Amino acid sequence: MKISLSWLKEYIPVTHTVEEIANKVSLTGIESSPVKLGQGLDKLVVGHITSIKPHPDSDHLNVCMVDVGEDEDIQIVCGAPNVANGQYVIVARHGAHLPEGKRIKHGKIRGIESNGMICGLDEIGVPEKYVPEAFQNGIYLFPEAEKPGADALVLLGLTDEMVDLDITPNRADTLGMNGAAWEIGATYNEKPDIKSAELDESKVNGSVDITAEVDDEKLVPDFLLRELKNITVGESPLWMQRRLWNQNIQPVNNVIDSANYVMIEYGQPIQAYDLDKLQESNVVVRNAKSGEKFTLEDKEEKVLSHNDLIVASGSQILGLAGVAGGIDARVTADTKNILLESAVFDGASVRKSAQRHDLRGDASNRYEKGVDNGKVSEALVRAVQLVEQTGNVGSISKEIVGNKTEAKPTVIKGSISHINHLMGLELSSDEIMDIFDRLGFEAKQDGDNVTVTIPTRRYDMSIEADLVEEVIRIYGYENLKGTLPSGMETSGGYSPKREFGNKLRNTLLGQGLDEVINFALLSKAEVKDFNIKETDLTKLLHPMTEDHEYLRTSLVPGLINNVAYNQARNNNDIAIFEQARVFDRPKGEDRPNEVEYISGAVSGNIANDSWNTTSKEVDFYDVKGIVEELLSFTNAKAHFEYVATDQITNLHPGQSALITADGQRVGYIGKLHPSYQKEHNVNDAFVFELNVDELFDLNKRKVQSQAAPKYPSVSRDLAILVGKEVESGQIVNDIFNNGGKYLIDANIFDLYQGSHVKPGHKSLGYHLVFQNPNDTLTDETVEQAFDVIKESLVQKFNVEIR
């Protein structure tokens, strides 16, 4: 909301600069900034065209003689289509500065001397969309005679200074000049002089042609109308036009301009209809029928929903309530009788309709934040008054009531001592009562107790804490004395669980993966894709889109979307991870549990071509190595295993495994299923997911430093022939179980399947390392352990020792 200083002076004395006012208001909690119009413009005056003739060498130019308040008229060549003799226009003199660095100079246009420029509003800084429609393709004409040579910028309001209030949603009272005058006046201890609107009672009669009704009184607490007959629709006076375009509103005619003027003055939107164009003699506010069509004033058609609130006369839709008027009953130059509307509509309903149809504007913005229902009737009277002032009005009807709710001021009780206690100040009761008075609140004191009656314009106030806020705002936050905190200091730091999560995150970053952050909301199909625990899904009551209506049960679908997005843009080498919460809702529970997970996705090359290396595409074991490194940093006193599985439908059945810790499942790893990859337009990709909460709960090992071994290790190689169905992990586990206390390592170094190997079998080679930290191992000790290992493998897995 832009507060004009020249307009503000009609309410309170203004002696401060716009910069000082903006700074002062900002300190009270409403962020403000100064705005100065017309900076850099000069030598713009009123000109009176005294004669005009066609340019001898052009079919569209005219040569004008213009009185600019000097001894002699000046000659100006003008190409505007609406230029004519006798007009009062804007003239840029020789040397005048216009927006965007443009400067006017003497010159010749097709051989005819021109000593200035006749301007349109858009040429001197008024945005074209706010220029009255009649002047958008030509020069601006003053609506009445002005003194030639007078400063045009002053007359047009383009030297005005303004305070731009960036209000919070709870301070909609400052969306009108009256409310803003109270706010700024309280800041400077000045009570605004706001005159009540009055009607010419001689023109008011009791007869009406229209009745009004409201279907849902909760959605429409107030709906008031007045008929005005035998009016003259024409151009608004200049003082009204300039205040409108300075508020970014296009002047149209005196009726629509009066309605918009009241919206800026009171913060109360007013709607005007052509009374003779109404289909029936009844106006009703109701919900639209799904599929009903509504045509805006710019002829754009909207298809309505049953949730849209409309103003209608029979089957004729007059407007989308609180949002936009329609074309059917638009006020035009031919209008003789009008109907003015002042109402309060449900803010949530207005907001949703405005968003649904992309029609958010000045009126809907005010209804969304709230309007003062104590001024609905007075704002309607003010609109009638302005129409009467700017055009002839034959008669005015009484107030037509569709619904009217009594405006009740809020009464808040508190105590002086408690207010001071909450503020940490020691203000006297007189100081506090004076602040209430400055704000226009009626306050009564009874000893330490105080009862404050809040005017309806401040509907944001309801409890004692609101009184405290008002007192401290007006007293001045800058006047608070700084004090040091007392008591015990609390040492900062992360919780153990947070530190554990950070360690996992840093481990993956150290391995070259990039962290991503995705939305926690997915589509129904996505949220089912990796719901491994088969938990109940959690759906939002009011999702914004179908793609974001369920809380995720896994981080993997979001990572797959990231992979698809990058691969679609030829970024194929991807290694990403996310650490966040998923929402696990057990069967029958109303609310989900939030569980911390860490997941990753890798695709493309794990190594690229270089002078000494060749590119290598990522495989299952590369990703398994990433996970093993990650698990090693958990410092868990647990045995991690990778158990092959085909139960995760969206993973490749031959390249996926559950990850267990002492038999407890803590995650999974695998390659995406080919059909899933095709469906989501991704190339080969591997994913993993681990439950951070379960990893954190595992018992931790006690880490102790050890000296480097003094005695050498002894190694043995073991080659076996075994059935293809036997997993290498089973072999390694059995080797460790039977290798004795000196076996410190066992790893596979060879796998062979093909010729010279029995069908259905495979050849595996293992490297075993033995070491005694306290003595030199003898061959006899190693061979004894080696024999036990081989014997166990033969008995359990029917292997052949090679």
Automatic annotation (TrEMBL):
Reactions listed under catalytic activity: tRNA(Phe) + L-phenylalanine + ATP = L-phenylalanyl-tRNA(Phe) + AMP + diphosphate + H(+)
Domain B5: 407-482
Keyword Cytoplasm recorded: yes
Domain annotation FDX-ACB: ranges: 709-802
SMART domains in the record: B3_4, B5, FDX-ACB
EC number: 6.1.1.20
Cofactors that this protein relies on: Mg(2+)
Keywords, in A-Z order: Aminoacyl-tRNA synthetase, ATP-binding, Cytoplasm, Ligase, Magnesium, Metal-binding, Nucleotide-binding, Protein biosynthesis, RNA-binding, tRNA-binding
Subcellular location: Cytoplasm
Entry's Gene Ontology molecular function annotations: phenylalanine-tRNA ligase activity
Cofactor: how bound: Binds 2 magnesium ions per tetramer.
Annotated positions binding Mg(2+): D460, D466, E469, E470
EC category: ligase
Gene3D superfamilies hit by this protein: 3.30.56.10, Bira Bifunctional Protein, Domain 2, Ferrodoxin-fold anticodon-binding domain, Nucleic acid-binding proteins, Phenylalanyl-trna Synthetase, Chain B, domain 3
InterPro entries noted in UniProt: aa-tRNA-synth_II/BPL/LPL (IPR045864), B3/B4_tRNA-bd (IPR005146), DNA-bd_dom_put_sf (IPR009061), Fdx_antiC-bd (IPR005121), Fdx_antiC-bd_sf (IPR036690), NA-bd_OB-fold (IPR012340), Phe-tRNA-ligase_IIc_bsu (IPR045060), Phe-tRNA-ligase_IIc_bsu_bact (IPR004532)
Major subcellular site: cytoplasm
Domain TRNA-binding: 38-153
HAMAP family associated with the record: Phe_tRNA_synth_beta1 (MF_00283)
Family (UniProt): Belongs to the phenylalanyl-tRNA synthetase beta subunit family. Type 1 subfamily.
UniProt cross-references to PANTHER family, sorted A to Z: PHENYLALANINE--TRNA LIGASE BETA SUBUNIT, PHENYLALANYL-TRNA SYNTHETASE BETA CHAIN AND LEUCINE-RICH REPEAT-CONTAINING PROTEIN 47
Assembly and interaction partners: Tetramer of two alpha and two beta subunits.
Protein name, UniProt field: Phenylalanine--tRNA ligase beta subunit
Organism in which the protein naturally occurs: Companilactobacillus baiquanensis
